[in-house]
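Every protein is a chain of amino acids, and every chain bends into a shape of its own. The fold becomes a row of whole numbers, each drawn from a learned catalogue of backbone shapes. The protein below has been through that process, and both of its lines are reproduced in full.
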Amino acid sequence: MSGTRERLTDTLYGLGWSTVKNLPESVAVRLGRTIADIAWKRRGAGVLRLERNYARVVPDATPERLAELSRAGMRSYLRYWMESFRLPAWSDERIRNGFTPEDVHHLTDGLASGRGVILALPHLGNWDLAGAWVTTNLQTPFTTVAERLRPETLYDRFVAYREGLGMEVLPHTGGSAFGTLARRLRDGGLVCLVADRDLSASGVEVTFFGEQARMPAGPALLAQQTGALLLPVTLWFDDSPVMRGRVHPPVEVPESGTRKERTAVMTQSLADAFATGIAAHPQDWHMLQRLWLADLDPARDPARRAAAGTAKGTA
């Protein structure tokens, strides 16, 4: 990204946080829907990728149905952004009433046990609102990880925004994040991670809607290393202003196998839980990027390059 584009991106996000949060809610909803519909009609790369991803989730969908899904998906995506821009101005009552999760006892019982809890989520619904609900309604702070963005000022905006909602935010780059997360869990704390996409060489291959994809190993490794409870969470919107969600039963650590084998089994269990939520509410899955390995350019896939380098070295 060029310096000019970086500055423009930072400026646009800054306008969103400074302007949208002060709009009446009905106006913000209409604005988000209008922007979503304009983006959908332009049929840009993100919209087309969203449709290709939905085609895996709903394999019997006609082109017309996929177009309907992608339009609904863009509206859901912009709802996420409109709500996120406005969250810093929401009252505690608005946050508490803005999210209704099912089976939250898995989370509260885990926290009460003192063993630490990891919540793992896909890019469904509004995970920032779910996090704000946890810090507000449950009065429980948590630690999360954010990808470093360019420009640095934009990353700083996201960190400040999430810290303002009661979250501790660690940068994704660098090896210290895992150690800090492990310490928080050993102290009985809560860690929340968005965990449905990892195209790095360290990602774990899973079967996802019948094809191979790669997801992060972190949640499973943290659970094994610290004894923390690993809970998948799925979110969705309906026709009301209230977001819905479900805390799924714990992903257990297998009793046998190497660490790599246990990690693979646990990450597959996470993928299966994510798939149930995405299949039920595909329009709320905001995956506008490549995910499945079949869609990747082998020359730009870190895992394949690493494997090829190892094979070459062995030869």
Summary: The mean pLDDT is 89. The CA atoms of residues 143 and 182 lie 10 Å apart.
